[in-house]
Amino acid sequence: MVGREIGSAYYRADYGEKVSDEVVLTVDNVSVPGEISGISFQLHRGEILGFGGLSECGMHEVGKAIFAASWDRTGSVTLADGTAINDIPTAIRKSIAYTSKNRDNESVIVNESIRNNIVLPSIEDLANHGILNNRKLTAFADKYAKDMQTKMTGVNQFVSDLSGGNKQKVVLARWLGKGSDILVLDSPTRGIDIGVKQAIYALMDDMRKQGKSIINNNQEPSKFRAFLSSDTFKGLLPFIGFVVIVVVMNILTEGKILTPKRIRLLLSQVYYPMIVATGVFFIMTLGSIDFTEGSTLGLASIVISKLSFISIPLAILGGVLTGAAIGAINGFFHVKFKLQSFITTICTMFLFRGVCAYLTTESAVPASTEIKALDLNWLKITITVAVLLIAWFLFRFTRIGNDVKAIGSGETAARFSGVKTDRVKFLVFVAAGALTGIAAFVNVIKVGSITATAGSQLETQILIALVLGGLPITGGAKVRFSNIIVGTLMYTVLNNGLVMLGYETQTQQLIKGIIFLVFVALTIDRKALKVIK
Q1: Which end of the chain is more exposed for a tag (fewer CB within 10 A), N or C?
Q2: In this predicted structure, what is the pLDDT of residue 237?
Q3: How are strands ordered across the β-sheet holding 96-99?
Q4: In whole angstroms, what is the distance from residue 114 CA to residue 142 CA?
Q5: What is the 3-state secondary structure (H, E, C) of 42-64?
Q6: Is residue 288 pLDDT above 90, yes or no?
Q7: Cα separation of 222 and 284, whole Å?
Q8: In percent, how much of the chain has pLDDT > 70?
């Protein structure tokens, strides 16, 4: 079957060997409603402790309960030093590893690279004062992937392209890299060929001899078409689309859209949408969505306008805090009550849009002449570039980028790998709101007074812009930071071109809707398709 003789190495021959008397883990009266009841046992150093039975007998829940991955677990799981294992970060920090039977959803993040899968629980160990060195991460992942003899083109290959056996090797490489001393392996040889099974059994035996303790729950096209469906082509598609739209609009407007005056006008319309899109980019990378950007911008603009008569720094701070507070409200209801983000933000969108309307009922809210005097191109460019550079640095070189991509690709697997998913999601919503507050300042210095329609339809514009920029609506690891810049520029050129051509609003919406659907169809990751979180 595997092209070679397996021989007697497939089975262990040391069943009678005595294990150490040293207890490393004690499970006492652990229960999970509807799954297991009153489970108690001790695990010794250098022991492989096996659980077996039919698929629904509850043995799979035992592993989750030990790893503190069951929300409603009762009873206690304690280490030899007395540490109680009540949450996943503690389990990982105290050198406990867990591999799930449901490999694709709970162990590996299939739409993420081999490298990022392996380094995920070890990022804090590999970071230098919070800063990640990508060469160091790559070398770390490459070492342990090769130690596991993973068949791959390189550690940047996506896990979704691997066989079941090689996916399992990636999972084990992750925990070998972390240096875990207690491994809870749930069906580690499920769905893999006999050759890989032999390798995994040999690895388990080697780890046992090293003094590690193991709990083992077990039951027994054409090149062109491939290129068009590849991630490489999908990555190039937004740039191709941008060039096509610029060329087409330039031809249809007889070159008027690329005159210096029109280019300056286009850039003046890009600044605050690009800042807002930066925050929404992180939310959509999570696999979530936010419909409150327009109402947040409107309300933050009102606060900035009113406070600008007192102090401009105070006005800016007030706008940022207003945006952050709205983001905190969205994040709280989304995380605390497990409400899907689009439901939460649609509700708060109407709420805060109503507040904007109430505050502007009698007249528009004017801003001070001092703040309007700041309508300087160099200032708006500086703010926009600063936001983009800081966000790019955080996304590319800190744990934040790894965590948001991991959550978007597979939230459960990310949580089981030590990512504090709820905290990350809450903070991302807060940060996105704060960025919208910064965008509100840029908006105020441009328009000078705020009406009830401030920021109207902004959420739709940002969503379309990011999708046009190539951001998969399902989020995850295949997002690119360039999605923000390319998408915002593309939407601005498209919108201005349609206006210059004299199309009615309904016709403009129809054309933009068709283009939006085409880009969604081309960029969506069907393997990760799910309801938006």
Answers
A1: N
A2: 82
A3: 48-52, 213-218, 182-186, 96-99
A4: 9
A5: EEECCCEEEEECCCCCCHHHHHH
A6: yes
A7: 33
A8: 91
Single pTM value for the model: 0.80
Across-strand partners of 79?
A: 25
Distance CA 296, CA 356 (A): 9
- Residue 108's nearest CA partner among 100, 274, 134 is 100
How far is it, in rounded angstroms, from Cα 473 to Cα 479?
9
Q: Which of 144, 45, 92, 159 is nearest to 416 (CA)?
A: 92
Q: Which residue has the tokens 């082509």?
A: 233
Tell me the per-residue pLDDT of 500-511, one tens digit each, with 9 for 90 and over: 999 998 899 899
Place 271 in a pLDDT band, splitting at 50, 70 and 90. very high
Quote the CA–CA distance of 477 and 425 in Å, as a whole number: 16
- SS3 for 387-432, per residue? HHHHHHHHHHHCHHHHHHHHHHHCHHHHHHCCCCHHHHHHHHHHHH
Token output for 221: 């096209």
Which has the closest alpha carbon to 96: 416, 419, 424, 423? 416
Structure tokens at 111: 């739409």
Phi and psi angles of residue 450, each rounded to the nearest 5 degrees, phi first: -115, 130
Count of helix runs (H) and strand runs (E) in the chain: 22, 9
- Work out the average pLDDT over 441-448: 95
As beta bridge partners, residue 48 has 214
What DSSP string runs through 166-218?
A: HHHHHHHHHHHHHT-SEEEEESTTTT--HHHHHHHHHHHHHHHHTT-EEEEEE
Read off the tokens for 339: 């409400």
CB of 221 closer than 8 Å to CB of 470: no
Distance CA 271, CA 269 (A): 6
